[in-house]
Amino acid sequence: MKTIAVSTKINGDAVDFVCAPDESLLDVLRNRLGMTGTKEGCGTGDCGACSVTLNGRLVCSCLVLGAEAEGAEVGTVEGMAEGGTLTVLQQAFIDHAALQCGICTPGILVAAKALLDQNPDPTDEELRFWLAGNLCRCTGYDKIIRAVQSAAAQMRSA
Amino acid sequence: MALDNQPKREFKVVGTRPPRPDGVDKVTGRAQYGADVSAPGMLVAKILRSPHAHAEILSIDTSAAEALAGVKAVVTSRDFGAVGDTIIDIGEDSSPLADIRDNCLARGKVLYDGHAVAAVAAVSAEVAKAALKLIKVDYRVLPHVTDVDAAMKPGAPVVLSGRVEETVQRGKSENVTHYCEFGHGDLESGFAAADLVVERSFTTAATHQGYIEPHACLASMTADGKADLWCCTQGQYNVRSVCAEILGMEASQLRVTASEIGGGFGGKTSIFIEPVALALSRKAGRPVKLVMTRDEVFKATGPTVSTSMDVKIGMTKDGRITAASSHLRYSGGAFPNATVDMGAQAAFAAYDLKAVRTFGWNALTNRPKESAYRAPGAPQAIYAVESVIDELCQKLNLDPLEVRLKNAAKKGTRSSYGPTFDDIGLIATLEAAKAHPHLKAPLGPNQGRGISAGFWFNFGGNTCVTLNINTDGTVSVTEGNPDIGGSRASIGMMAAEELGVPFEKVRTIVADTASLGHNDITDGSRVTFAVGLATIKAARDAIQKMCRRAAAIWGIDEEAVEWVDGAARPSGPNAGQFPPLTLAEIAAVSFQTGGPIAGHHEFNADGAGVSFGVHIADVEVDPDTGATKVLRYTVFQDAGKAVHPDYVEGQMQGGAVQGIGWALNEEYIYGADGRLQNAGFLDYRIPVASDLPMIDAVILEIPNPGHPYGVRGVGETGIVPPLAALSNAVSRAAGVRLNRLPMSPPRVLEAILSKG
After folding, report:
1. A158: burial class by Cβ within 10 Å (0-12, 13-18, 19+)?
2. How far is A50 from chain B (nearest CA, A)?
3. pLDDT reported for residue B87
4. Residues 451 to 480 of B: which have CB under 8 A from any A CB?
5. What confidence tens digit (pLDDT) does each residue in B535-577 have?
6. Quick one: chain B helix, strand, coil %, rounded to 5?
7. How many CB atoms lie within 10 A of CB B63?
8. Residues B404-434: b if buried by 16+ CB within 10 A, e if exposed
9. Do A129 and B294 touch (CB under 8 A)?
């Protein structure tokens, strides 16, 4: 199959790759670029484990073609912490025990950050509906909601 | 090992909430799960699955697939060896090895929609997929059965022949493979003494564990028969045993490393793809990665038993249960299993009963082979029992919590399944629920409150731990159970507690099968209890050695040294006057005092201590749509001693929400063609954040007499009470008793409309 050459930015770094026309951005990230922080839970856009941002918009990378990243800016969990310093949101997930197995955590962090970027003071209900596309089977969501709200409060007062 | 209760122990580390050691890896995307590793020269594998619910395989022609450019190996059941009659013990379940093998790749017949038939390893996923289309399988389609009651009737299509155990009564279908009976006392006179007897029938749908990480592995076998296997599993030693037998290898030649695990809940105690990947790697001579799709996960892994149950309970006007019986019909899919034993034993475990009897049957159906799911077998039976108790309470105008208190099992109760209980926390848990403000909160129109008790046995099992004292005064704990709920933290905390060092000085790792002796699967809520106990004993072993080194340095008797707060000290004024030697000081000079210092312990842990929980659920039912909204939810559970309370709460909350999903939405739906209709997260709907309120978790600590800190397992009990708590709440809100799970909106609406 003919491949497509793509130039994009991932977490601020210029990245060039080639991919098949029908290859998902998720497969490009994981299989071609070795960026396995983004997870595949379903491949059909139902679980949110593969959440990334594309030009600032929250997307399921399993439903985006690699070719669509041409000229775009992609944000993944690997780009959140600066150097060795975790973001307030990442630290809040550890402090509030908001993860158990951790497979949904990268997607939930990316999704929660996307919400807080546009709404720094969400209600619990807004937060629960925003995260309704990110399945977590371990926690029952209680500690995730607490962690995001705690991070939001810290970020507002910073 | 007995509880250290003289004097009452003051904990320094246990009971605190340090950050989890795997936290940073998991919030930065660095943690490596099953599908996250690669190997040089790696091939990609795909599996061909049956489109039929039941069919004879007349022939499989793989020649065209093998001839496709880029295909490096094709395997079928012919590539697996003979395994004899070996029974593999998988913790909560045991299974003939031949069944596991034939579930990995069908032999002779396909037994359910999605049953694996052949597999391909190729240079890319695209080539592997193309090759699957070139495999020609000739099927003779057979009649199928997916419903448990239909499968038990004489004349039902027979899933597997010759598997009926001797204890099963005659006159039933050959699908009925297993029978069990538990209980004591005189049922007849018990029911005669009741003021009211209620008998009801219930069904529950099969549900899936729903872990977000699909099964994945990377297998690499070399020409000399050595192999390495990386996989997401709840038990790497079990994977080794099963794969080595199926592939005809010696266990020592197969090293299995457990990846970080993306959820299991029992579903990753089973083996589906690892022998296939190893067989492909052996044939291709290259590493092979095999990752399931979500569709495959639903069709061919997991689910719980589906059930049909009858429960009969007699009660006096003042709320005393006089007799109780149940008939449980479980189906664990296409292969024999005995999960109904656990349902039958758990059904009435919460109650102190004079007359109780439970009868259980397992029936084969054309569904995937059942896997354990959090307290396997218990939620269903207890749902039926707790529903009937609630109906009795309603009809006799009794408080459902007081009735449970009145009948609760306690120390000295002869349990409904045989053993006499030691110290148990049920009454304390019920009292905590009674005192909680939730129970007194007002309810509005169309709202209802349900309560349920729940129970799980908890397991111990084979366990092996090594604890190394490093020369810089830090500690490395090597254990062999995949960390599924924060066990690296809890094990490290118990090591720190026992040694008297800060938690930050301890690092706990999960060993591969070549680096430590056998450990049973992470199941039965056993790890914090059994591995924790082995860690404490390994620490005491290391302490004894450090005391010996200190005695040698001081030139006094070993018996004259004691270990207090992380340091060796002379045990009294007669022992001599020496300043304490800390762990770090002893470790620093260990090479001069006899060499490295390590503690070790291996055993088959006993004394796990049963666990009880009580849940309160408030719901609102929309009378126009039948939709249920969970308004408030509180979990009370006995943890014995909560080592890391955050993770105990996490188990309680996670289990409760899985149970809420089971009660309200989740089900395997089969069409008339015997094919699964909803093999994806869109149509198999697990709870999402917007479905739920906060889940309040109240931890009770009634020490387990079988553990020095009093620890009980907490992982499983939490999924047991939600089914009946929700059903009782919905029944009270809707004004009509519900008796089928899930209580999806159409079913609730039908029940509302049928009451007239």
Report:
1. exposed
2. 11
3. 86
4. none
5. 999 999 999 999 999 999 999 999 999 999 999 999 988 888 9
6. 30, 25, 45
7. 10
8. bbbbbbeeebbbbbeeebebbbbbbbbbbbb
9. no
Contacts A35 to B, Cβ<8 Å: 29
User: Cβ(A25)–Cβ(A8) under 8 Å?
Assistant: no
CATH number, residue A8: 3.10.20.30
Among B26, B33, B263, the residue with its CB nearest the CB of A137 is B263
C-beta atoms of A145 and B694 within 8 A: yes
Q: Which of B751, B750, B731 is nearest to B451 (CA)?
A: B731
ipTM exceeding the 0.90 mark: yes
Residue B380 has φ and ψ, to the nearest 5°, of -65, -55
Same domain, A116 and A138: yes
pLDDT at B619: 98
Q: What is the pLDDT of residue B92?
A: 65
pLDDT tens digits, one per residue of B411-447: 999 999 999 999 999 999 999 999 999 999 999 999 9
Domains of chain B, with CATH numbers? Answer: 23-31+460-601 (3.30.365.10), 43-142+209-300 (3.90.1170.50), 306-458+609-754 (3.30.365.10)
Mean pLDDT in chain B? 96
With cut-offs at 50, 70 and 90, classify the pLDDT of residue B581. very high
Q: How much is the pLDDT for B91?
A: 64
A63 touches chain B (CB under 8 A): no
CA–CA distance from B218 to each of B49, B132, B221, B262 (Å)? 20, 20, 10, 16
Q: Which of A93, A96, A100 to mutate to test the interface with B (most CBs of B within 10 A)?
A: A100
**B689/A104 CB distance under 8 A:** no
Contact A44 B681 (CB under 8 A): yes
- Averaged pLDDT, B15-26: 97
Q: Alpha-carbon distance B698 to B431, whole Å?
A: 12
Number of domains composing chain A: 2
Q: Is the pLDDT confidence value at B244 over 70?
A: yes
Mutation target among A26, A63, A103, A149 for the B interface, most CBs of B within 10 A: A103
Nearest partner of B88 among B104, B99, B77, B103, judged by Cα: B99
What tokens were used for A104?
């949904």
Q: What is the pLDDT of residues B382-408, one digit of tens each?
A: 999 999 999 999 999 999 999 999 999
